[in-house]
Amino acid sequence: MAGRSPPAPVTTVNHVIRPEPAASPRPALAGRAAVAAFLGTLVLGLLLGLGVRPLELEEPRRALVALEMGLRGDLVVPTTNGALYLNKPPLFSWILLGLMRLTGGASEAWLRLPTVLSFLLTGAALAAAARPLGRTTALLAPVLFFTFGDLLFYGTLHADIDLFFTLLVTLQALAVFGLEQRGRPLALFAVTYLLAALAFLTKSYPALAFQALTLLAWLVAVRRARWLFSWQHLAGLAVFLALAGGYFLLYAQRADAGRYLLRLLLDSSQRTVVDGHGAGALLLQLVAFPLTLAKACLPWSPFAGVLLLPAFRARVRAEPLLKFAAIFVAVNALPYWLSPGTRPRYLFPLLPFVALLLAAALPHLAARGVHARAARWALGGALALGAVAPLALPFLPDAWRLVEHRWAWFLGAAALAGAAVAFWRAEALPGRILAVALALALARVEYDLVVPALRRERSEATFLRGVADDLNRDHRDARIFLAGAETVEQRRIPFLGGTASFPAREWFPLSLSYYYSAGRGELLPYTTSPRPGDLLLAHARFDVGRPHDVVRTWHAAREQDDLKLVRVRE
Question: By the 8 A CB rule, do 481 and 530 touch?
Fold first, then answer.
């Protein structure tokens, strides 16, 4: 039978991209093996060090809210140390509490698992959405997302809300695109407002900003702005109000829901341009934001220039999904670009769509000879340095002594060298990118073998967990309270003028409260009216103001505050 004639070359604006020859079964099998090796190594790296470090930074806040909900038997009103917690809605804390109930404990590994699952599910959703763009883009989009440095070496390490929020926003945005393309306005508004309500119950008002900006920009771009004034849109808003509004109606039965919503609004606007930042701070943010976004997307952001190639811009205009991704990133980046207080983790919801655009654009780089060679040498050089870097660890005694499984570390170092060799042997761009991605996943495994143990040794949270263990062991039957200065926090209300007042108490690191409550099964509340015989935990510098005896002191290392336990005299 006569063979088929080869496909014609595809002409782009500046050059011709010739179709790849038909792949033989062996390279296809090798490609599947490389993908499997990357995904397996990635999952290993994400799970390996989850339980080594104590909860730190924002982690104990999320975990303490969940724990106190369970101890108090109240899933509606979140608290920390028995006082109202108004900074975030409770959805993520409900998830953590569910895991605590399911596993019968509150270990660090279980509490960090939702972050890892959210990360993996976001990548899976991205791969599924990218299938119409071709197998290469559908492969590269999640690979690039999984290996963005801020996600792989920061976001996935913590039991925090940002990657769960990123998953919800990604699903929300993909639903806007997919259901609009199918011409289903009722389903579009119902599904996206359902996801927006879940996102609002996770991180409050930023969820509404993503929903409003994405809907408005995309429906205008596809000339369906009239949908915004339809009964279907009203039905979607009803879904949002039923879910998000229903929660706050329940909250209003127990506490002041209006004050809760106001505090959420003030916290959401705290680091934005509406919070009174000066012109100098705004100017600095205009310059710094692109660098912050580029840092979040390392090591792939140096190739972002390919997004500006005429050939790729023509493809964006021709491919609805790429056009949507570009619009999504542009309109949703704008509020952060104008907000001097933006933190890098706030940009996580943008990264799936940045990855999608880069994945679709990189093949255009491969067709440009000198640029492709420069990219190959840049990536290959960085990979070679990364393969050599682990050899320095045995010469760092403080870190090397903490490596418990040195055979695994040496195996990982050898695998890194193998990934570097695979990069130079790969002929096609996807193979080279997979080799770099595999090296980054291996680097995460190597990181988990060293850094979590080092951070555990040096973390303030380790000291605080030790204090909690002492209290739970030596004073288990005593009533213990936190004692500290009480103040009133004044917050300016944007646009409306005036201020709002919120009670505030002297800050105690929440790692202490979490490990105390998890170990003893009861709250560690504040008190302003201790009774004789009560034990008070306070900073060493705090004046208790009552006759008391010092029972014990804890001397913190480094720059932490010393703590004291005192007993109020009869």
Answer: yes
